[in-house]
Amino acid sequence: MHAYRTHTCGDLRSSDAGSNVRLSGWVHRKRDHGGLLFVDLRDHYGLTQLVLHPESPGFAVVERLRAESVICVDGEVVLREAGTINPNLPTGEVEVRVTGVEVLSEAAELPMPVFGDQEYPEEIRLANRFLDLRRERLHKNIVLRSKVISSIRRRMVDQGFLEYQTPILTASSPEGARDFLVPSRLHPEKFYALPQAPQQFKQLLMVSGFDRYFQIAPCFRDEDLRADRSLEFYQLDVEMSFVTQEDVFAAIEPVMHGVFEEFADGKPVSSITSTHTFTNDFRQSFEHAGFERLTFAQSMAWYGTDKPDTRNPIKMQVVSDHFRDGGFGLFAKILGADDKNAVWAIPAPTGGSRAFCDRMNSWAQGEGQPGLGYIFWSDDQNAWGGPIAKNLGQEPTEALMASLGLGQGDAAFFTAGNPAAFAKFAGLARTRVGTELKLIDENQFKFCWIVDFPMFEWSEEEKKVDFSHNPFSMPQGGLEALETQDPLTIRAYQYDIVCNGYELCSGAIRNHKAEIMLKAFNIAGYDASVVEDQFGGMLNAFRYGAPPHGGLAPGIDRIVMLLAGETAIREVIAFPLNQQGEDLLMNAPTRAEERQLKDVHIRTVPPIKV
User: Fold this and answer.
1) Phi and psi for 382 in degrees, rounded to 5?
2) Which of 252, 403, 402, 413 is nearest to 331 (CA)?
3) Is the bond into 54 cis (omega within 30 degrees of 0)?
4) Which residues fall within 8 angstroms of residue 204, CB to CB, at 6 or more apart?
5) What is the pLDDT of residues 155-169, one digit of tens each?
6) Which of 51, 146, 408, 556 has the most CB atoms at less than 10 Å from its CB?
7) Cα distance between residue 470 and residue 507, in whole Å
8) What angle do CA 211, 449, 291 make, to 5 degrees?
9) What is the DSSP letter of 609?
10) 0.90 cut: is pTM over it?
């Protein structure tokens, strides 16, 4: 017989009754039933119930053991009595009558229990992550992560992609966040950077003649942490040669759809066979099969964000014309103050009550806003109510609400000013309305593409034009657009995948021509010499024959987070950092010893206290 086990704790079934077995695992829970001792023994695979009589060998030993002690038991598999069968447990029809016990490792008093799913402070959980990971929910999440990655790899290989590895020690690159720097011992005063993404290397692989690349790539960004963001994360890094934007979409949609359908636990997933009407910048309409597609401009106008949760059916609308000629003085004054100003409406189907409108108004004030204008259907008056309706009059109000597709029992909320300033708040208000009125079908995974991102944006902080998304993207219109158009009107072949309000990936058709790259960086304020110095390797590669290429990089952590039903990626990472970027288990970051600093030619200077 094997030294530790003939079966796992998830193996035994009624067909094993009468067998002599050996099991090893953790003491999950003990129950004393009038002289009979029941023990749930747990390992990676499941639970098996043990039963010990007072005369059973090892009874006294097990009776005194704390939970989470590790034991090895011998025993006979017996059928449970009909009234004691546990239908929720795969091994619930049997139990093991113990005939021998060996204590492999005795547990000290636990800083936090493993049994149950109680919430504990993050510092306790992360400092004792080895215990936290034994808990059922978290353990399942990490297993799910492994299976998701395995599925992604299989699907990528089946589509003809090959996995290649790119360097971890590399040069600094402007990816939008701070780099983690690594000092060089061999090259004093010089530093490597940990990759924010393998961007340049995957493009260089395309220039080197490889056609379809992917990698489950570790990435590092020294940025402020959020629930869906970590300093260290993994992404499915993808790049393809001789492709258009449509080719990239056609390659990645089956992977994303397939993985989510495989692990969605029965929840509906956006179809990739249905046909959608896509409106390009509100002008051109055409049909396409696959995930819903929105331009950046549409997404901002309808949802107030470029990461919309399209499970929420509410679409905001511009209603400026209904207020331009007066009626409601405040909005008319705002519209007259600046041509950029507008009035947006947030429809609220079924929200027609003063109490709900007042709650939304109070919520807006809590968000730092002066309030939130509204119109609601008043059953008492059998008419539209609220200050805006009172000032507009019933007939203009009827026309306004009809244009929003609203009627009896409904309401609408309004924001006014420069959309660039209020769009984010309006998007939050839309989400709040949808949530409060229970309009969101949360039992699904709904994908969409966001396309046609602006190539450049105005940086108010630096008072200059800067890249708005990925600096290595191909501008729509190529070099001619860069030379003849207002930079803020240029769109790029850039795209994001969004699912249920989370950005899962960014991507682009790349700029593969040196002259276009130099011109784009010049518009963003980078002199040619700076570009040559920072990106000389890629520029030189482009000068020796580069194929058109493009790709994207879905985030592994966020994919698993959504599939696991979690709202924080720390719940799907085995050993995460806390919100302050600290590893409480390994006590990192730590101070380096003097000899270590000397090796890499560094002297530390404490921050200046202000």
Assistant:
1) 55, 45
2) 413
3) no
4) 537, 538, 541
5) 999 999 999 999 999
6) 556
7) 8
8) 90
9) P
10) yes
Q: Are 294 and 452 in contact (CB under 8 A)?
A: no
| Sequence-ordered list of residues with C-beta below 8 angstroms from that of 381, at least 6 positions apart, any chain | none
Rounded to an integer, what distance in angstroms lies between the CA atom of residue 537 and that of residue 273? 41
**CA 57/CA 236 separation, integer angstroms:** 53
Per the listing, tokens 């080197």 go with 208
Pick from 74-78, 468-472, 595-599 the range whose average pLDDT is largest: 74-78
Please write the tens of the pLDDT for every residue from 424-444. 999 999 999 999 999 999 999
* Dihedral angle sign, alpha carbons of residues 182, 186, 189, 191: negative
As a whole number of angstroms, the distance between CA 457 and CA 301 comes to 17
For the stretch 121-152, pLDDT in tens is: 999 999 999 999 999 999 999 999 999 999 99
β-bridge pairing 181-183 and 191-193? antiparallel
What DSSP state is assigned to residue 155? Answer: H
User: Which residue bears the tokens 């507009």?
Assistant: 392
* Cα-only R_g, the chain: 30
DSSP letter, residue 14: G
Strand intervals (E) in 383-485: 383-385, 411-417, 447-451, 456-459, 464-467
Among the listed residues 552, 551, 549, the one whose alpha carbon sits nearest the alpha carbon of residue 209: 549
Residue 487 neighbours by CB distance under 10 Å: 19
Q: Are 497 and 533 in contact (CB under 8 A)?
A: no
Token pair listed for 551:
């790709």
Question: What are the φ/ψ torsions at residue 130 (nearest 5 degrees)?
Answer: -60, -30
**CA distance to 354, 374, 426, 437, per residue, from 388 (Å):** 13, 7, 18, 22
Count of beta carbons in the 10 Å neighbourhood of residue 297 = 17
Strands (E), 386-545: 411-417, 447-451, 456-459, 464-467, 494-499, 502-509
Q: Are residues 80 and 42 in contact, defined by beta-carbon separation less than 8 angstroms?
A: no
- Tens digit of pLDDT for each residue in 339-397? 999 999 999 999 999 999 999 999 999 999 998 999 999 888 899 999 999 999 999 99
Q: How far apart are CA 404 and CA 322, in angstroms?
A: 12
CA–CA separation, 549 and 510 (whole Å):
6
Nearest to 234 by CA among 193, 205, 197: 197
CA dihedral (225, 228, 231, 235) in degrees, to 10, reads -160
Cα(137)–Cα(144) distance, rounded to whole angstroms?
A: 10
Q: Which residue bears the tokens 């470029």?
A: 306
Give the three-state DSSP class for 173.
coil
**282 pLDDT more than 60:** no
Q: Tell me the C-alpha to C-alpha distance, in Å, between residue 484 and each of 82, 370, 480, 528.
A: 82, 42, 6, 19
Specify the DSSP element, H or E, that contains 541: helix 528-542
CB atoms within 10 A of CB 354: 14
Helix ranges (DSSP H) in 133-280: 136-158, 199-207, 245-263
Instruction: Give the sign of the dihedral formed by CA 73, CA 74, CA 80, CA 86.
Output: positive
Q: What is the largest CA-CA distance in the chain?
A: 93
Helix (H) or strand (E) holding 277: strand 275-280
> What residues form DSSP beta bridges with 240?
212, 550
Phi and psi, residue 96, nearest 5°: -110, 120
Q: How far apart are CA 457 and CA 410, in angstroms?
A: 38
